[in-house]
Amino acid sequence: MQIISAISLWFIPILIGFILVYGTFKQVPTYESFVEGGKEGIKMAFSIIPFLVGMLVAISVFRASGALEYMMDWLSPGLKAIGIPPDIVPLALIRPISGNAALGMMSDLTAVHGPDSYIGRLAATLQGSTDTTFYVLTVYFGAVGIRKMGDALKVGLLADSIGIAAAIIVVYLMFGT
After folding, report:
1. What is the value of pTM for the model shown?
2. Distances (CA, A) of 22 to 8, 16, 18, 38, 98
Protein backbone atom coordinates (compact mmCIF):
# COMPACT_ATOMS: atom_id res chain seq x y z
CA MET A 1 0.00 0.00 0.00
CA GLN A 2 2.90 2.35 0.71
CA ILE A 3 4.23 1.77 -2.81
CA ILE A 4 0.94 2.89 -4.36
CA SER A 5 0.90 5.98 -2.12
CA ALA A 6 4.46 6.84 -3.15
CA ILE A 7 3.67 6.34 -6.84
CA SER A 8 0.54 8.51 -6.63
CA LEU A 9 2.45 11.20 -4.75
CA TRP A 10 5.32 11.40 -7.25
CA PHE A 11 3.63 10.55 -10.57
CA ILE A 12 2.44 14.05 -11.53
CA PRO A 13 5.68 15.89 -10.59
CA ILE A 14 7.75 13.30 -12.46
CA LEU A 15 5.46 13.52 -15.49
CA ILE A 16 5.69 17.33 -15.55
CA GLY A 17 9.47 17.17 -15.14
CA PHE A 18 9.72 14.63 -17.96
CA ILE A 19 7.66 16.86 -20.28
CA LEU A 20 9.84 19.87 -19.46
CA VAL A 21 13.08 17.96 -20.00
CA TYR A 22 11.79 16.38 -23.22
CA GLY A 23 10.58 19.76 -24.52
CA THR A 24 13.93 21.35 -23.73
CA PHE A 25 15.72 18.44 -25.40
CA LYS A 26 13.58 18.98 -28.53
CA GLN A 27 14.41 22.72 -28.33
CA VAL A 28 10.82 23.75 -27.66
CA PRO A 29 10.52 27.00 -25.68
CA THR A 30 8.81 25.31 -22.75
CA TYR A 31 8.23 28.38 -20.57
CA GLU A 32 6.84 30.44 -23.44
CA SER A 33 4.61 27.53 -24.46
CA PHE A 34 3.36 27.27 -20.87
CA VAL A 35 2.55 31.00 -20.73
CA GLU A 36 0.78 30.85 -24.11
CA GLY A 37 -1.29 27.89 -22.91
CA GLY A 38 -2.21 29.82 -19.77
CA LYS A 39 -3.40 32.76 -21.88
CA GLU A 40 -5.55 30.45 -24.01
CA GLY A 41 -6.97 28.82 -20.87
CA ILE A 42 -8.03 32.19 -19.44
CA LYS A 43 -9.66 33.17 -22.75
CA MET A 44 -11.52 29.85 -22.79
CA ALA A 45 -12.67 30.32 -19.18
CA PHE A 46 -14.10 33.74 -19.97
CA SER A 47 -15.87 32.43 -23.06
CA ILE A 48 -17.48 29.62 -21.02
CA ILE A 49 -18.86 31.86 -18.24
CA PRO A 50 -22.04 33.04 -20.06
CA PHE A 51 -23.01 29.46 -20.95
CA LEU A 52 -22.31 28.29 -17.40
CA VAL A 53 -24.41 31.08 -15.86
CA GLY A 54 -27.28 30.29 -18.24
CA MET A 55 -27.19 26.62 -17.30
CA LEU A 56 -27.11 27.34 -13.55
CA VAL A 57 -30.04 29.76 -13.84
CA ALA A 58 -32.08 27.17 -15.78
CA ILE A 59 -31.44 24.55 -13.08
CA SER A 60 -32.39 26.96 -10.32
CA VAL A 61 -35.64 27.92 -12.10
CA PHE A 62 -36.53 24.24 -12.65
CA ARG A 63 -36.07 23.41 -8.97
CA ALA A 64 -37.52 26.63 -7.51
CA SER A 65 -40.62 26.58 -9.71
CA GLY A 66 -41.79 23.33 -8.22
CA ALA A 67 -41.67 21.56 -11.60
CA LEU A 68 -39.35 18.91 -10.19
CA GLU A 69 -41.69 18.12 -7.29
CA TYR A 70 -44.73 18.06 -9.59
CA MET A 71 -42.98 15.62 -11.92
CA MET A 72 -41.99 13.43 -8.97
CA ASP A 73 -45.56 13.29 -7.68
CA TRP A 74 -46.74 12.27 -11.14
CA LEU A 75 -44.05 9.57 -11.65
CA SER A 76 -43.95 8.04 -8.14
CA PRO A 77 -46.76 5.46 -8.48
CA GLY A 78 -45.36 3.98 -11.68
CA LEU A 79 -41.81 3.91 -10.36
CA LYS A 80 -42.83 2.18 -7.14
CA ALA A 81 -44.73 -0.41 -9.20
CA ILE A 82 -41.57 -1.42 -11.08
CA GLY A 83 -39.29 -1.29 -8.02
CA ILE A 84 -37.44 1.98 -8.65
CA PRO A 85 -37.22 4.22 -5.59
CA PRO A 86 -38.79 7.60 -6.51
CA ASP A 87 -36.16 9.40 -4.41
CA ILE A 88 -33.54 8.58 -7.04
CA VAL A 89 -35.38 10.13 -10.00
CA PRO A 90 -34.43 13.77 -9.31
CA LEU A 91 -30.78 12.72 -9.30
CA ALA A 92 -31.25 10.86 -12.60
CA LEU A 93 -32.92 13.92 -14.12
CA ILE A 94 -30.45 16.51 -12.84
CA ARG A 95 -27.25 14.53 -13.51
CA PRO A 96 -27.26 15.16 -17.30
CA ILE A 97 -27.71 18.87 -16.59
CA SER A 98 -25.31 19.65 -13.76
CA GLY A 99 -22.70 17.62 -11.96
CA ASN A 100 -22.64 19.95 -8.95
CA ALA A 101 -26.42 19.87 -8.51
CA ALA A 102 -26.35 16.08 -8.84
CA LEU A 103 -23.56 15.83 -6.29
CA GLY A 104 -25.62 17.92 -3.88
CA MET A 105 -28.63 15.65 -4.42
CA MET A 106 -26.51 12.56 -3.93
CA SER A 107 -25.12 14.00 -0.69
CA ASP A 108 -28.66 14.66 0.52
CA LEU A 109 -29.75 11.13 -0.36
CA THR A 110 -26.81 9.56 1.46
CA ALA A 111 -27.36 11.83 4.47
CA VAL A 112 -31.04 10.85 4.69
CA HIS A 113 -30.83 7.15 3.76
CA GLY A 114 -27.21 6.34 4.62
CA PRO A 115 -24.34 5.41 2.29
CA ASP A 116 -24.87 1.66 2.73
CA SER A 117 -28.60 1.77 2.01
CA TYR A 118 -30.04 0.70 -1.32
CA ILE A 119 -30.78 4.32 -2.26
CA GLY A 120 -27.32 5.48 -1.13
CA ARG A 121 -25.59 2.82 -3.20
CA LEU A 122 -27.86 3.48 -6.17
CA ALA A 123 -27.22 7.23 -5.95
CA ALA A 124 -23.45 6.72 -5.89
CA THR A 125 -23.55 4.24 -8.76
CA LEU A 126 -25.84 6.48 -10.81
CA GLN A 127 -23.54 9.44 -10.20
CA GLY A 128 -20.65 7.49 -11.69
CA SER A 129 -22.64 5.87 -14.50
CA THR A 130 -23.87 9.02 -16.23
CA ASP A 131 -22.42 12.25 -17.53
CA THR A 132 -23.37 15.92 -17.55
CA THR A 133 -24.57 15.81 -21.16
CA PHE A 134 -26.35 19.17 -21.33
CA TYR A 135 -23.52 20.87 -19.47
CA VAL A 136 -20.91 19.48 -21.86
CA LEU A 137 -22.93 20.37 -24.94
CA THR A 138 -23.87 23.85 -23.75
CA VAL A 139 -20.59 24.94 -22.28
CA TYR A 140 -17.95 23.25 -24.40
CA PHE A 141 -19.73 23.13 -27.74
CA GLY A 142 -20.87 26.73 -27.21
CA ALA A 143 -17.36 27.86 -26.32
CA VAL A 144 -15.89 26.54 -29.56
CA GLY A 145 -18.82 27.70 -31.68
CA ILE A 146 -20.48 24.40 -32.55
CA ARG A 147 -24.17 25.14 -33.13
CA LYS A 148 -25.45 21.86 -34.61
CA MET A 149 -25.39 19.46 -31.70
CA GLY A 150 -28.53 17.42 -32.27
CA ASP A 151 -26.78 14.10 -32.88
CA ALA A 152 -24.42 14.61 -29.95
CA LEU A 153 -27.42 15.36 -27.74
CA LYS A 154 -29.23 12.20 -28.86
CA VAL A 155 -26.18 10.01 -28.29
CA GLY A 156 -25.40 11.65 -24.95
CA LEU A 157 -28.94 11.19 -23.65
CA LEU A 158 -29.01 7.61 -24.90
CA ALA A 159 -25.75 6.94 -23.06
CA ASP A 160 -27.21 8.55 -19.92
CA SER A 161 -30.35 6.41 -20.19
CA ILE A 162 -28.28 3.27 -20.54
CA GLY A 163 -26.13 4.35 -17.58
CA ILE A 164 -29.20 4.94 -15.43
CA ALA A 165 -30.72 1.57 -16.37
CA ALA A 166 -27.41 -0.22 -15.83
CA ALA A 167 -26.95 1.42 -12.43
CA ILE A 168 -30.43 0.35 -11.32
CA ILE A 169 -29.97 -3.21 -12.56
CA VAL A 170 -26.45 -3.68 -11.18
CA VAL A 171 -27.25 -2.24 -7.75
CA TYR A 172 -30.43 -4.32 -7.56
CA LEU A 173 -28.55 -7.51 -8.52
CA MET A 174 -25.62 -6.79 -6.19
CA PHE A 175 -27.46 -5.48 -3.15
CA GLY A 176 -31.21 -6.10 -3.61
CA THR A 177 -33.70 -3.57 -2.33
Report:
1. 0.64
2. 22, 10, 6, 20, 38
